[in-house]
Structure formats: structure tokens, C-alpha cells
TrEMBL record:
Annotated membrane topology: Multi-pass membrane protein
Transmembrane parts of this sequence: 17-34, 46-65, 86-110, 143-161, 168-188, 208-237, 249-274, 294-319, 340-365, 385-405, 432-460
UniProt entry tagged with the keyword Transport: yes
Signal peptide: none
Major localization listed first in the record, in broad terms: membrane
Superkingdom as given in the UniProt entry: Bacteria
Compartments (UniProt record): Membrane
Protein name from the UniProt record: Transporter
Family, similarity comment: Belongs to the sodium:neurotransmitter symporter (SNF) (TC 2.A.22) family.
InterPro entries membership: Na/ntran_symport, SNS_sf, YocR/YhdH-like
Keywords attached to this entry: Membrane, Symport, Transmembrane, Transmembrane helix, Transport
Matching Pfam families: SNF (PF00209)
Species whose genome carries this gene: Roseivirga thermotolerans
Amino acid sequence: MAVNLSDGNRGQWGSKFGFIMAAAGSAVGLGNIWRFPFITGQNGGGAFVLVYLLCVVLIGVPLLFTEMGFGRMTKKGTIGAFKDTGANPLFMGLGAILALCVSFFVLSYYGNIAGWTIGYIFKSVSGDTGSFQEFASNPMNTIPLMGLFTLVTIFIVKGGISGGIEKAAKVLMPMLFLLIAVVAIRSLTLEGAMKGVDFYLNPDFSKISANTFLVALGQAFFSMSIGWGIMITYGSYLPKQTSIISSGLWVGLMDAGVALLAGFMIFPAVFAFGKDPAAGPTLVFQVLPEIFNSMPGGAIIGAFFFLLLTVAALTSSISMLEVPASYFMDEKKWSRNKSAWVVGILLFIVGIPSALSQGGSAFFSKMQIVMFGHQYTGFQDILDFFFGTFFIVLVALVTCIYVAWKMPVNKIVSELDTGSPTWKAGSLASSIFVFFIRYVCPITILLVLLNMMGLLGFFAGGG
């Protein structure tokens, strides 16, 4: 099988730090700050946090190594990586093409949610106490804000790897940590905040069940950009001298770190004001604005909070746009500028039904589908189940099997060895890695998939 190792004019990361910031930025998104706290609240607090960290280290990080190595070895995005290593139609369809579709369709509605965060910055500053439903159901709010967010994403991606994505990540990621620190400190100084800290950090092991592990594994996938084609694409821009091992560890650490810090923003405030920590997705756009409005200086803290959500969404959106854009650059030989604009405009058009699905259109808001015994209502929720939940895990499983059993696996082991002097093929570390991606990772991913299908209980999570 022929592997094309030419770099062409695709560009490369200018520094290891820049790559880590960009890859961590991709992994760090609304899933960490929005979804992780309410999933933690629903699953018993501190006990779930421990299980989640275990899943990140044992499953998430080896899969990061695998996808980054696959991308750098082929110097191609997700479609080219599978094609150039001789993938058959099954692996091309369920691995490469489906991964590209995941990034595209998730970003189509992710832009809508990111638009909400922009709108809530202004709602916080202006003291607007209108309900979330009133805001989200108004197309004059949602569609222009989605367009604005998509436009910013396009401008960053069309700037190139080092001149656009890397440069933005170096600014946005430190800004994200600073904003999280500001909001967390304010939250921790509220009267009664320590009850939230106790709930968050004090493990109740009676809450841990088999389902806890499955939910934690699912969250690790959704928050770490595994199964999206993103880490394959980002890895393809990585110079040979850069260590994938240390880079992957840093990305996993930063991803889990932001998720953990998000808990210190949210749980102290939730408990200080007597709210339900298991309130679900409404926690961010309904419960927290109420809390901000009732605390001294709440308008400014609320604006900071929604600004950091916007930043987190942007660091992820640029990576999602890069996946389909890289396809047109690699396979169709389009310029970066043309690829970014064409994909971005298509994303905006495809995203309009999602922007109308919160009450703006009866048709898109009320459409329903039943999958695995659970009903999903609204265009955005249906897309989220398929592309933001189910297909991510399916792609992760197919990619893992392909790299570990079909390529063969020693090609990835050799790629990880390049640029990592402490990692040698045949060493104990590489042998453990091979064992994990051949046996442990596929089996656990399959369990998550079966659980989503209702065969092991039901995991009603979204991406």
C-alpha cells in the first residue's frame, strides 16, 4: 500500500506549543463547560469525576495517539488518510466519510448554540431577563448570531494553519483559562459555595455503577474530539520532529482540566442559590443567568461566563471546519481560501433549520424520531443524536479497528516513535499501547455503542 508523505502546500504547525493549543482548543469546547457539569450533577458528583478521569487516561489518550499518528503518517485529512492506506469501502464509509460528516453536521448546529452564547453576552450586560425560550425561538436573534459566529470561524480557518488556526489558538486558549478563573473565583466566594465544592469533590462510591463508566466513557469521546476526523487532520500538519506522545498527553490533560475547572464555576453557584445540580442542559442558559442576575456584580460575571463559552465554542468550531475544508484542499486541490468559504457558506445554510428548531418554525421544532426507545424532538436534537452522539462512537470504533488490525498496527507504533526518544517500538510502553488499542479500546467503545442502543441500559447523552 502506498502512503503519500509529501507535504504539498498544506502548511504545518509553526511550533509544538501552537499545535497543543490548537488541538486542546479543539477538544475543549461546550462539551467541557456546558455538558460535563450537568452530566456530573446527574451522576453523583465526585464519584463520577474520578471515573471520568480514569476513562480519559486509559481510553481517551491512547485514541488521541492513534488518530494523531494516523494523520501524521499519511500527511492527509481523514478521507485521504484512509484512502492512501488502502481502506476498503466499508472502512472508507464508516471511518473516513462518516467522520467528515460528523464534523460538518455537528458544526452546522454548533454554530447555532454558539450564537446563543454571543447573544447571552449582550443579554447579561443589558440586564435583559427574558426567558431562554423567548430568545432562542426568535429567528431574528438566532440566524444573524449563527451567521456572525460562522463568519469568524471562516476568517480564522482561511488564514492557514500557522497564520490562522495556530495564531488564534495561542490567544484564545489562555483567554479561556483566564475567564474560567475569573468566574470560578467569583462563584467560590458566594455564601454557601462550599456545599457545591463538597458535592463536586467528595466521592460517593455508592453512586458508581456499570452505567457510570459508560456515561463517563461517552463524555470522554464527546469532549476529546475522538471520532470526528479532527485529530487525524490536525496530526497531518504535525512536523516529524514533534513528539505525538507528549503532545497527546498535554491535550488530554488540558481537556480534562477545563472540564474540572468548569465544575468550580458552576456547582458553588448552583448550591449557593439552592438550585438543582442535575438540571440538565438548561443549567447554562436558564439556571445560571438567574443566579448571575441575583448576585452583586452578576451582569459582568454573566458576560464573562458567556464570553468564555463563545471562546470555547470557537476553538472547537475552527477544527470542525478544517476537516471538510482539508478534504477539498487534499482531494480536489482547491485553495484554502475557496475551501473555507464554500464549506462555511454551506454550513450556514444547513444550520438554518437548527436555528429554527427551538420554536422559530413549527415544522423544524416539532419533527420527531424514535431511536432505541427514546424520542428526539426538533431538528437540532435529531441531528445531535445521530452526528453528535451515535456516529462519533461508531467512527471511533471503526478507526480503532482499522488502525489496530488492518493497517497494520506497527505503522502507528513506528510513527509514535518518531520524535519521541523515550518511546521505542517493542518497549513496555508501546506494548501496552498496542494492547489497549487492539483490545481494551475497541471493547469499551463497543460497550458504549451497545449502551446507546439500549442494550445495556440507556445513555441519553448528546455531544
